[in-house]
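Ligand: 2-acetamido-2-deoxy-beta-D-glucopyranose. Inputs:
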Amino acid sequence: MPTPPDATFTAGILLLFLLVTTNAATEFEAEALLAWKVSLGDPEALSSWDKVTRLCSWTGVACNDAGRVESLQLRELGIAGTLDELNATALPALTTFDLNGNNFVGSIPASISRLRSLTVLDLGSNAFNGSIPPQLGGLSSFVDLRLYNNHLAGDIPHRLTRLPRIVHFDLGANFLTNPKDYLRFSPMPTVTFMSLYLNYLTGSFPEFVLESSNVTYLDLSQNNVSGPIPYSLPEKLPNLKYLNLSVNAFSGQIPASLSKLSKLRDLRIATNNLTGGIPDFLGSMFQLRVLELGSNLLGGAIPSVLGQLQMLQRLDLRSAGLVSTIPPQLGNLGNLSFMDLSMNQLTGVLPPTFAGMHKMREFGAASNKLVGQIPSALFTSWPELISFQAFGNSFTGKIPAELGKATKLGILYLFSNDLTGSIPIELGELVNLNT
Ligand SMILES: *[C@@H]1O[C@H](CO)[C@@H](O)[C@H](O)[C@H]1NC(C)=O
Ligand SMILES: *[C@@H]1O[C@H](CO)[C@@H](O)[C@H](O)[C@H]1NC(C)=O
Ligand SMILES: *[C@@H]1O[C@H](CO)[C@@H](O)[C@H](O)[C@H]1NC(C)=O
Ligand SMILES: *[C@@H]1O[C@H](CO)[C@@H](O)[C@H](O)[C@H]1NC(C)=O
Ligand SMILES: *[C@@H]1O[C@H](CO)[C@@H](O)[C@H](O)[C@H]1NC(C)=O
Ligand SMILES: *[C@@H]1O[C@H](CO)[C@@H](O)[C@H](O)[C@H]1NC(C)=O
Ligand SMILES: *[C@@H]1O[C@H](CO)[C@@H](O)[C@H](O)[C@H]1NC(C)=O
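Predicted complex:
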């Protein structure tokens, strides 16, 4: 179809104008990135970053339709250096900046907050130090902020809790502290993933976390948070699927309200100071995949209702002060691949029903008061078994010859028992074995 000549002419002028302005901007972007590259010592990984190659085809660089740098994806390229020489003002269209898994050092410069369009910032797994610049809290388009696994110290800036669109918030594995009070912290209603694990958080359960009502994944593990697990937690955070409060100083009972967390898949509250026994309601949380309660002061018995958790893959009841026999019902846990019952005061036998746990890979019942024979059927029914630890009990009888059928077995600890007979010849077939 013929186009009127006027229109073509106007369109031509407009195109020319766009090309000129875009070229100038692109020039600034290229210049800024080249200057940064020089400051990084011209890494081999960035060899395509030069004046002859088109900016938009440089390694890790992606441009938007207007030809402006939209994303820098430089994950795991072995780059070392700092962000000090990056001219953030020259990259106004950058939305994604990913330096995860390199060797960056030094502080995160406040000037990063000039990247006005930034929605994703991943500086995880580097060696950034210093404190988190509060100016990051001014980047209102942030959706995803990952600063985990660095050497960041100081208080968590309260401004970060006011990011209006943030969904993924990960400050784990740093040296961060919380302020004496959280008065200036705000609830983060848009966040679904919240991780502050392995930092120096103290005091009771942080109120702003409790009020971040949309959280589905919460990891506060390996801090020094104390006081009770809040009774209101399930009401405030009803969408939780993953809850990790392990390795803290929580005390009191496992709150009965937890039964209301109908979507919870992983419950990790090991290594705290929890008391009051293992509550029966846990046996009705049918969606649980992971249940870690070990290294607490729980006491009491192993409830037989735990045998109803058909989805359960991991059960840690190690060193929890448990005084009971082992309920045979646990043998119904057909998806269980990890079970640790060691370092309690369990009595009676290892139930023969355990042969029903066909996915078992790692089994531990060491340092208890168990008696009787180790059921030989375990070793014919557990084809995936790699570790079996039952030392420090009072098992009797012969070491089962069926052990030879557990062909993947790599760790077998049976010492300090009253077992008799010789080591079965079949064990010679186990190429991975390390006893
Ligand atoms: C950074 O980039 C801006 C915009 O392109 C430019 O005006 C400024 O001079 C640059 N700053 C430095 C220190 O190069
Ligand atoms: C950060 O690390 C660099 C060396 O990598 C060091 O020179 C600097 O003093 C450190 N800064 C802080 C605040 O620890
Ligand atoms: C909560 O998360 C869902 C999806 O995970 C999202 O659709 C919803 O907008 C979020 N609510 C808020 C207040 O951000
Ligand atoms: C944990 O916090 C308590 C106060 O709640 C404090 O006495 C203790 O020293 C802290 N422990 C560590 C390892 O920081
Ligand atoms: C805490 O638990 C979550 C969910 O089960 C898991 O993904 C995460 O790796 C755990 N954190 C640590 C530090 O192990
Ligand atoms: C746990 O409680 C015991 C005694 O009640 C106390 O000595 C210990 O410091 C507590 N541990 C933690 C991590 O809070
Ligand atoms: C194992 O879990 C799956 C879902 O992941 C479930 O459908 C199945 O019934 C479980 N099997 C057993 C034997 O419990």
